[in-house]
Hints:
It is a single chain. The protein is α/β, with parallel strands linked by helices and 212 residues long. It has 8 helices and 5 strands. Helix 1 (20-30) runs parallel beside helix 3 (73-84) and helix 5 (128-148) packs across helix 7 (183-193). The protein starts with a strand and ends with a strand. Glutathione is lined by residues 18-19, 41, 46, 58-61, 72-74.
Amino acid sequence: MLKLYAFARVNKVARGNTRDLRVLWALEEIGLPYEIVGMDHPNHDLDSPAYRALNPFGQIPVIDDDGVVVTESGAILLYLARKSGKLMPRELAGEAQVLRWSIAALNTIEVPILSRMFVDWNDGKGTKPSQALAHWGKMRLEQLDGWLASRRYIATDDFTVADILMTHVLDAGNTPQLLEPFAHVLAYRARCTERPAWQKTLDAYRARVEAA
Length: 212
Ligand SMILES: N[C@@H](CCC(=O)N[C@@H](CS)C(=O)NCC(=O)O)C(=O)O
């Protein structure tokens, strides 16, 4: 049975926005059976040698699929899509679009948004680096908004793992006001988060994961 190492207890600021949610959402959409190995972050479960052997970075999420260990949320989602034949086209051209937009989510969009949050959390609010990162993030979101003006989903005509990654990344900065000027991005995000699989995933996470 596929094992997912996911948070059982995590800092209250991070709870509800952790990257294990990406995997849980994909598993729910796909309908694959799995078991959760609950990890307690404040109790240093991620620092144990056994866990570091699975993920040298000591981070969540990790999957162990009968001995196939995969870390990195993007890699895990692409693995699950390949394994199940769902949430990604099987032909090369369609798969390339899903790879393209998965990497765009994790690199082109997540990097400026997360970097700004990190700078602001470290007494950088209002500083030049923070303003420069805000400008960088807004520029990318505006460009994304243009792409989404005529599209229902990010990579193909159907919902794919790239949509899970992009939707989750859009909330990475924990700053909803960042998205406000971008109507197509907001409509896209709503389209994806209204999916029953996401609602079910989030409800189950909130019932299971404790805030520390
Ligand atoms: N690039 C990694 C990042 C994973 C990551 O940042 N995980 C966070 C939770 S969302 C974590 O485990 N933080 C705990 C720590 O670093 O101690 C991925 O996408 O899986």
